[in-house]
Structure formats: C-alpha cells, structure tokens
Amino acid sequence: MKKVISLTYLFGVVFLLASALYFFASNWQVFSRLEKVALAGSLIVLFYGAAFLLDRVLKGAHFLSNWLLVGGLISFGLSVALLGQLYNSHADSYLLFLVWSIPALLFSLYTRYGGFYALTHILIHLTIYFYLFPSSPFELWTLAHTWITFGVGILNTLLFLIIKKGDIASKPLLYLSLISANLLLMVTAFDNEYSVFFTLFYIVMLGVGVYRFFHKETSIFIILSIFGTGFIIIKMFELMARYVSSLFFVGLLLAAVLLLTGSVFLVNYLRKHSSSRHWTKTIFVASVTTIASVFIVASVFGLLSLLMVNVSMVTLFVFATVFLVIPSTLTSWPSPVKYSLMMTGIIIGMMASVFDEFSFVMFFVLTYVFYVEKRFTARFVFYVLFQLNTAIFLGQTMNLGAHALLVVMMLLNVAVYLATYKKHVLQYGAFLIGFLAFFSLTTIDLSLTLHITYTALFFLTATGCVYFFKKQDRTFYWVSSLVFWFMLIVQLYYDLAWKLVHKSLLFAVLGILFLMVAVYLDRKVGSGQQSHSVLAGKRMGILLIICLQAGWIGYQVYSNETLLQNGETIVLELQPVDPRSLLQGDYVELNYTISQLEDTSIDDNGSITIVLRKNAQGIHEYSGVHSFNGKWNASYEKKPGDVLLNGKVTSSWDNSAQVTYGIEHFFIPEGTGLDVEGKVKAAVVKVSDKGDGILERLRD
Fold this sequence. Notes:
This is Putative membrane-anchored protein. The structure is a single chain. By secondary structure, the protein is α+β, with helices and mostly antiparallel strands. The chain contains 22 helices and twelve strands. The chain has helices spanning 2-26, 33-57, 63-86, 94-111, 114-132, 143-165, 171-188, 195-213, 218-242, 246-272, 278-306, 313-330, 335-355, 360-372, 376-397, 402-419, 425-441, 448-471, 475-494, 500-525, 539-566, 673-676; strands at 568-577, 580-581, 585-592, 596-597, 606-614, 620-628, 631-632, 643-653, 656-660, 665-667, 682-687, 693-699. The relative contact order is 0.10. The model has no long low-confidence stretch (mean pLDDT 86).
C-alpha cells in the first residue's frame, strides 16, 4: 500500500503540472494578459504553499512536500515560458531556460536534494542546446560551437567523477552526467576540421571508462558499451560515405576479423577470472556482435554493389543460412564469433527475403535459431527479430494498413504474454513489443473517435500496469509501463487531434482525483513512509529563493507592460511560417524586410542599432544608417520621426548582414496558424527609448 500511495501522489502532481503546461501552451484567448499572469502566479503559490503546508501536516512522510517543492520550481519555469508567450519573446530561447536554471541551481546548492540536482542539470543543458541550436534559422554550426560542446562534455565528465568520489550524493545526476558527457563528446567527433583529435580523445575516454568499470559497476559499463558501440557504427558510416571504395570494404571486413580475434582472447580471459560478472560478459559479447555484424553486412553489400556482382536474393539467402546461421548454431565457437556470424547471416537473410518478398521463409530460420539457442539475451533478440519479420510478412502478403497491422501486432503479443509463464524470455519481449504497438496506435492518423478511444485505453492500461507490477515488485514491467505512461503525456502535447485546452482540463481533473485518492488512502492506512524533508531547517532560505522568482516575474511584467503603454509604435513588413514551441505553444516565425541588411560592410557578428524611417505607405524601413558594436557607419544626428531599433548580427556574407531583433516570434492560439500564415503583411512593434522592441500584434 505504501507504494500505491506514493505513486498516486506522483501521478497527481504530474497531471497538475501537465495541465498547466498544456493550458499555457494553448494560448486561450478568453483571458487577458494580466489575468494569465495572475493564473501563473496562483500556480506557483499553489505548489509552494502546498509544499510548506504539507511539510507540517505529514509528519515523517515528506516525499509529497518535496515533490511539490520541485513542482513549484517547474511551475516557475512554465510561468517564465508564459511571459515569453504573452510578450512574444523568442520561442525556445536559451534565455528562458537560463532564467529557469538559476533558482534551480540555488535550490540544488542549498538543499542538496536529488530532484533539484536532476532538474538543474536538465535545464542547464537545455540552455546550452538552444544556444547552440537556436530557433532562428540563420544561425550556423561553427567550430566555436564544437569547442563549446567539447567543454561542456568535459565538465560533465568532471561532474561524474565528483559524484563517484562521493562529494555529491545523487544517483540520477550520476547517470545524467555520464550520458551527457558521452553524447556531447560523440558530437564533437564528426564533421569538423579537428574531428581526428576529438575522435581519438573520445576513444581514449571510452577506453579508460570501460577499463575502470569493467568489473565494478555493471550499469556504468552498460552505458559506456552502448555509446561505444553506437559511436563505432556511426563513425563507420561517416567514413564509408567519405571513402567509399572496394578497398575500404575489404578493410572493413578485415577490421571485423581483427575485432572478433581480439574478443576471443578477452572472453577467454574473462572466463578465467571469477570476479567478472555475468552481465559484463554478456554486454561485451553483445557489443562485439553488433559491431562485427554491421561491419560484415556493410562490407558484403558494399563489395557486391561496387563490383556489380549479379547475385540473386535467393542465392544470398541460402548462402547466409547454410554457411553462417546453421554452422554458428551447431559449433562450439567462442561467443563473439558465434553470435557475430549468426547475426550477420540473419540480417543478410532478412534483407534478401524482404527484397524479393519471401519473408515467410525467415520464420523457419528464426524459429530454428530460437529453439537451438538457450541464452536469455540471445533469445530475446531473436524474438524481437521474429516480430519484426511478422510485421514485414503481414505488410507484404495482406497489404495491411498501419492501423490494422498495429492492432494485429498488439493482440499477437498480448496472446504470447498471457500464454507464457512468469520470467520467460517470450513474456519480456511480448510485453515490450505489445506496448510499443499499442502506443503507436495513439500516434497514427485515425478518426477522432478511434484516436480518443486508443488514447484512453492506453492510459488506463499503462496506469494499471504501473500499479499492478509495482505492487508485485516486478521492476522491469512497472518501470517499462511508467516510461510508456510518460511517453503518452509527452506525445499528447504534440498531438493535434484535439485541443490542448481540452486535454489541460482533463489532466486537471485527473490530477485532483489522484491527489484526493492518495490523501484518502494515506489517512485511512497511513503510508508510514519515512523521508527527509527538504524544508527542514531551511525554510527562510527557500522562501528567499522563491521571493527572487516572484521578483523576477514582477519586474518582467512591469517592464513589458510599460513598454507596451509608452513605446513608440512602428510598422514593419514581414513573411511568416508556423511551428510549435517546446513549452509555449504555436507561434508564427517572422522574417522582416529589415532582417537582411544590404551594403553594410559588416563581416562579423555583434550588436547593431539601425535607424528606421517611415515611408509613404506608413511602413518603417531601414534608412541605411546603423551603429555596429558602438560605431556608426556614417555621421548621424537624430531627425524627427527617426526610430532606433536594437538587434544582433547573426551572420554576414557578401557585404550583407542577417539581423535578429528579438521580435521574430508571435505566439498564437492553438490551431490558428493557417489563419495567419500568408495573410498577414506587417507587424506592429513598440520600441522603447533605449531601442528595445516588443511585438504587439500582426496586421493584414
């Protein structure tokens, strides 16, 4: 019952936060700007206030008050996003996440609570991501971006080592820093003039990490192995695209042979050392098998293509089955060699059968391999391949559409799950594939009735599975169900079948119901779950951080409202498009006639102030006079009617400069993009005495 109560509280908090996000993103026009600000403020007060209240009421069970405190910080971030929406600030700007990350960092340093650590890490990396990949289409990836990425990767590596040393106690942050470090360092190893250096550096880092954690921590070794395997395969495709030739593919084949030879010696070494864990050996063999199989398959098809050898698909299938798959199952070859040849044969056979549409034959091959092979991991992989072949076969022979195919795959795997006994490999595979097919039904284009039906059924099923398997302590199943549950929440944000505001109201009702049920169960049986209170002895400091958040929101509202009331009105020509922001909903992306300045003699990025003057049609145009990094391009004295507008040069070429002014996004109610796109011709902008602009409205 303790686990049920804890999960119910969690679901209630998540639903309320999702409801707020959906509502703000819908940009519902029933409320005015200030009323929306008041709603955002009320949400912050609700979460923080409830956290302080329940901290006193729930003695010894502080997990809910801790979650609500984190929820308050998330609601602050949603409020920051709402202000950007109300005053048409940059969509998904790194500034949004930077502002949000500051109180998160203060909370982390002050409370040392794991939830704040994880949220801070995510927000800082979102800040960096949107700095490197801004919404503006004019920013280009440069070598400077690569070095920034490299530096952040190194910082994540240092953070990982600090946590491992014990200076920071947070498991989620440990894995977040490890994954981030590997991902960022991988990015630097591709498509730049120093990629050789970055590649060697990352290989050394991986090698040291694998050696360090080979015998000690399986979870870290698994993460490193996954990244290492992915890196080698992606690097292979990059090199193949650059140096494609018969010699390259021969070298690839030799590399696979050398890899398998080396792995044989290492596996023998592991067998002689009892300290080596079973999962360590399994992951190592899986990594070698994946890399070697991809290398061999790529080299075989590459050589056949370059040498223009006319081999029928049936011949290729027979060769793969007779000379690779069957021998690998009947011999006692070392594991890396055995499984690499087996997987190579299966992949070649499946590709050949799909090409000539005789995939039904692969059922016999996969069934044979599954029957002969007894290792759990291998049988799991073969079951997944069997299901993939089933989907291909049904698509080829019955011409099933996506809807019917997904329904058949879901029902088939439900039947397999129910027909197998607990902890059988088929049950694990059927659970994942069945759930994946079910989730896919909520994403495809169907009628509104079917879409809502599948969504509701999926939600009920996922929620029920989380509770059921959590109660039975079947970790794989309840964690998988919870992942699919969150996937649905995220997917619904981008789903266009029904309005965000309607989903928001539904989530609000569900959140309240879940919290009411949790409170009832808590009072009836008592959760008895002891946990440390984040607020213990730190209430005044936390209140100060909350006040800083409130002060920032108040300042932003005051300054923007003042500018809208007192700023000088100008009209600018534009051309719009229609995407959706991560947190702020639908918006129109604007490209002004003044976004590209001709004959500027600017050859660098930096701050710029341009002089605008009104033409006969009432449109403000660039006068040809500007100040770049504080230096005017011509002598200038302000004339009556002149308006100075601040911007930023983001790129320059051929004596032209691309400029952004912070007024490139106009947020609109959900689903109204087509009403705006192509119909509006101008934007009405308010400009302050300092030259800062704020977008007020669009006009035809």
